[in-house]
Design brief:
The complex is a heterodimer of chains A (71) and B (826).
Chain A (H helix, E strand, L loop, with lengths): L1 H23 L4 H30 L13
Helix pairs in contact in A: 1-2
Chain B lengths: L11 E9 L3 H11 L3 E2 L14 H23 L21 H66 L12 H14 E9 H14 L4 E7 L4 E2 L6 E2 L1 E9 L1 H13 L3 E3 L5 H58 L2 E3 L4 E9 L3 H14 L7 E6 L12 H11 L12 H15 L3 H16 L1 H6 L4 H8 L1 H18 L15 E2 L19 E2 L19 H34 L3 H32 L5 H10 L14 H20 L1 H28 L3 E2 L11 H25 L2 H25 L4 H39 L26
Parallel strand pairs in B: 11-14
Antiparallel strand pairs in B: 1-10, 1-11, 2-10, 3-7, 3-8, 4-7, 5-6, 9-10, 12-13
The chains are: A mainly alpha (71), B alpha+beta (826).
């Protein structure tokens, strides 16, 4: 199912991002922790929005009705 | 567990310094260079004039005034002196002593004043002479032309007399000979005054002269081509040269008075052409001399300015710092007998080694016999709030602190605001085309920050520069949400795979589908469009019903998530301050109340999406309160929904008194126990504390008013319960603004750009493009950014922060040289 697959990408992004912050931008434990929190908050926000839009379109109640010519 | 940066403000301690008087100045200077200690004013009851170092402060103020005078003078002379490169630590430049500087400045000021006075005097003489020269020239011209005319007339007369004495004898005026005889005597009585008068006043000057002399005067005037410098004011004025002829002494006094009244400068003007000529040459030579003197004077002044300007910046900074140091010294309390100064102040605990190091260096450098004593005081006073921010986090922290500076060590919303603020902004500003424009602007600011940081910017630019990282994140998130909303200047793109909809009759493509405008396209696969809103919705008749439903529900879900985060942060606060009371009687009932009602609503929204069923969620929520026992019928989403709803309702109902009553009652009980225990327990802890110094206020009686506490808790509870409803509704602004943004950009795209594109004329297309660009920039990129920014701000300040943030602290203001600004000179 696409939902879990793409969500997995988000989880991977979060893991890679957290790791990157710790390894490539190492500024001591307390700053690293802030940066990890920032990365994860961002990923969660983005995932939340994506998931909402995905779910809302999953089983639609209304169909797209195109405008007729000249409308 | 590692403490997170920015989550709690730095741990502070109140310290006391006992500084030997001889090293006090150096110590304060070194501490100001370090910039990590906030001095407390220990003489709040003394006026500025009663303080120990009032005299020094006054001297510094006087020096600052002189420096400002030099600065103004140099600016007035239009010079840009070569500034000496700033030293990092000009205070320690021991070769310039403050007293030395003071005498130097006094000398320089006197010199400059003298130069100025001399130059003014010379300048005045110079302009007077110039005017005189002009008068000689212009008035001389009148006289010589008049003389020429007179001689030609005489010549003619002579000619006629000689040539045709008989024929024209009849025409000859009878009185001619008498006239000729009386001329000299008349000439003697005709007086004249020559001078210059401003052109603007010339007309009224003439009129007044005419009236005052009853017409018995003759005014001759000639404009001066170029404006001349007025000797009195030193300004350039357009003037005219005049010569007034009049008869009699009385007329003369009148004319003189009128001249004075009009600011007309009179100049002596000899009648004799020879003397005129002589005077002219005299004036010319004097003018030349004067010019030389003036040039020499100017040269000298420029030299002085250059000398001053070379050091001006340095001196200004030095005086500013000295003044600040003496101001700070004034806040210390002085102990006359022991010849030492006592300072108290706040510093971050982590900065103590640095401070002690600075103290030692100061004592060593000032050759003091005794070191400064540094000790920690214990106090119940609330310490200031201090976050160590960098250029990235600073702007976000300022957004939080614009609402209120956090209480000491309470959870700081700042570390979540860094992400959630730009994110909520982007939810309202979702368009990746606009996002890219914003990103370019932000990148410009960020990449040229070093250059921009040095120069002075305008108000608006200053604000944009300060918030450049906020704008950068806002732009990045806008691009993301733009992809989610699938909008690029309101145009959808099918980047992430094709649309999930097709014509019910597979023989047709989507565009040619005959049923597309009646029953609509149908979804043909289980998964929707993979990333964001399906492009097929754009421009369809069902676009608004779909996006409205989506965005409204999204606002609620995002809002509930953020408010839950806020409540969880209140748990972190309660745990940090070891207040079990707040965990059990505030955090838990609040969490239950919010989620029993609105968490449940969120759950229903998601469930409905997953089922694709058609129950009416408004109906479900409303009848959950009105008649919880009733059968839901077709609005039922899951088995046993009625029972779940009854349980949730009961939980919510219980949560309200749970929030309201236990906390004040338990506080009261604790207070009573404490009062009873006091009679016995005094001896206990005092032994261990006796080594520490104690500060006033330690023994203050803790007042406990049960009524007050109860009312406070009642307000808090009511605010939370009502707030749960109104705050959730407040998050709907996310929907409203995002809708407005999408619709506005769609209107601009369709009505401006597409409208112009229908014409094949390239000029109309170009005009359409330009108008579109301007409207997009002005309305969408400026105004919409501002409004989305303000709404995101509100959602953070009110809806998010009121769940946990007290915001009643005060900011840490260390005494530091680098924070001194030009305003401190005044």
């Amino acid at each position: 199912m696409g939902f879990f697959l793409i969500s997995l990408y988000f989880v991977l992004t979060s893991l890679v991002g957290s790791l990157c912050v710790k390894v490539c931008y190492n500024k001591g434990p307390s700053t690293n922790m802030l940066n990890v929190v920032l990365v994860n908050t961002a990923v969660i926000c983005c995932w939340l929005m994506w998931a909402i839009v995905w779910l809302a379109q999953w089983k639609p109640l209304i169909n797209p009705v195109l405008k007729a010519e000249g409308e | 567990m590692v403490a997170m940066d920015l989550f709690r403000s730095e741990e502070m301690s109140l310290v006391q310094l006992i500084i030997p008087a001889e090293s006090a100045h150096d110590t304060v200077t070194y501490l100001a260079e370090l910039g990590l200690l906030q001095f407390k004013d220990l003489n709040p009851d003394k006026s500025p004039f009663q303080r120990t170092y009032a005299n020094q402060v006054k001297r510094c103020g006087e020096m600052a005034r002189k420096l400002r005078y030099f600065h103004d003078q140099i600016a007035k002379a239009g010079q840009t002196p070569s500034y000496r490169p700033m030293l990092d630590r000009p205070m320690l430049d021991k070769d310039i002593d403050l007293d030395e500087l003071e005498s130097k400045l006094t000398d320089l000021e006197a010199e400059l004043l003298e130069i100025n006075a001399n130059t003014d005097k010379l300048q005045r003489t110079h302009s007077e002479l110039t005017e005189l020269q002009l008068v000689l020239e212009k008035a001389g011209a009148f006289f010589s032309s008049a003389r020429n005319a007179a001689t030609t007339v005489q010549q003619q007369r002579a000619d006629t007399e000689n040539g045709s004495s008989i024929e024209e004898a009849i025409d000859r005026p009878l009185l001619q000979e008498q006239e000729m005889q009386t001329e000299p005597s008349k000439q003697a009585r005709l007086g004249f005054i020559a001078g210059v008068v401003p052109k603007a006043k010339a007309a009224s000057f003439e009129r007044i002269l005419f009236r005052a002399t009853r017409g018995n005067m003759f005014l001759k005037q000639a404009p001066i081509e170029e404006p001349v410098i007025d000797p009195a004011t030193g300004e350039k004025v357009e003037k005219i040269v005049f010569v007034v002829f009049f008869a009699g002494e009385r007329a003369k006094t009148k004319v003189v008075k009128i001249c004075e009244a009009f600011g007309a400068n009179r100049y002596p003007f000899p009648e004799d052409p020879n003397r005129q000529w002589q005077m002219k040459s005299e004036v010319e030579s004097r003018l030349g001399e004067l010019q030389n003197t003036l040039d020499a004077g100017m040269h000298h002044r420029d030299n002085v300015f250059n000398n001053i300007g070379y050091n001006l910046e340095q001196w200004t900074v030095m005086v500013r710092r000295e003044k600040a140091v003496y101001h700070t010294l004034n806040m210390l309390s002085i102990d006359v007998t022991r010849k030492c100064l006592v300072a108290e102040g706040w510093c971050p605990v982590s900065a103590k080694p640095k401070i002690q190091d600075a103290l030692q260096r100061a004592a060593y450098d000032s050759n003091s016999q005794v070191n400064t004593i540094f000790q920690v005081l214990h106090t119940k006073e609330s310490p200031p709030t201090y976050f160590e921010t960098n250029k990235f986090t600073n702007a976000f922290q300022e957004i939080v602190e614009a609402y209120g500076v956090g209480r000491y060590q309470e959870a700081n919303p700042g570390c979540f605001t860094i992400v959630t603020f730009p994110f909520l902004f982007a939810v309202m500003f979702g368009d990746w085309g606009h996002g890219i424009c914003l990103l370019l602007g932000a990148l410009y600011l960020v990449l040229s920050e070093k250059r921009l940081g040095k120069q002075k910017l305008g108000d608006i630019m200053e604000m944009a520069y300060g918030g450049r990282y906020v704008i950068l994140l806002m732009a990045i998130f806008s691009i993301y949400t733009g992809f989610i909303y699938n909008e690029f200047f309101s145009v959808p793109f099918g980047i992430f795979g094709g649309t999930a909809y097709r014509c019910p009759d597979p023989a047709y493509s989507n565009d040619a589908c005959p049923m597309a405008s009646t029953s609509g396209l149908e979804k043909y696969r289980s998964d929707p469009y993979e990333f964001g809103v399906d492009p097929v919705w754009h421009g369809s008749r069902s676009e608004l019903p779909f996006t409205n439903s989506l965005k409204m529900k999204m606002s609620i879900l995002l809002g509930i998530s953020q408010m839950n985060l806020g409540i969880v942060l209140s748990y972190f606060n309660a745990r940090y301050f070891r207040s079990a009371l707040d965990v059990w009687y505030q955090f838990i009932p609040q969490l239950l109340f919010l989620n029993a009602l609105f968490g449940y609503l969120s759950f229903l929204i998601v469930l409905k999406w997953c089922q694709g069923s058609k129950p009416d969620l408004y109906h479900v929520m409303i009848y959950m309160f009105l008649s919880p026992m009733e059968d839901l019928g077709e609005n039922q989403l899951f088995m046993g929904q009625t029972y779940v709803q009854i349980v949730l309702l009961v939980v919510a109902m219980v949560a309200v008194p749970w929030m309201l009553f236990p906390k004040p009652l338990i506080l009261r009980k604790q207070h009573i126990q404490k009062m009873q225990g006091r009679a016995y327990g005094v001896l206990g802890g005092s032994d261990t504390e006796s080594t520490d110094l104690e500060v006033d206020g330690e023994h203050e009686e803790e007042e406990f008013e049960f009524g007050e506490v109860l009312v406070h808790q009642m307000i808090h509870t009511i605010e939370f319960v009502l707030g749960a409803v109104s705050n959730t509704a407040s998050y709907l602004r996310l929907w409203a603004l995002s809708l407005a943004h999408a619709q506005l950009s769609a209107v601009f795209y369709d009505r401006v750009l597409m409208f112009a594109w229908e014409y094949s004329n390239p000029v109309i297309r170009l005009i359409g493009l330009v108008v579109f660009a301007f409207v997009t920039f002005g309305v969408l990129l400026l105004m919409e950014t501002l409004s989305a920014f303000l709404h995101a701000l509100r959602l953070h300040w009110v809806e998010f922060q009121n769940k946990f943030y007290q915001g009643d602290g005060y900011k840490f203001h260390p005494f530091a040289f680098k924070t001194l600004t030009e305003e401190d000179d005044m």
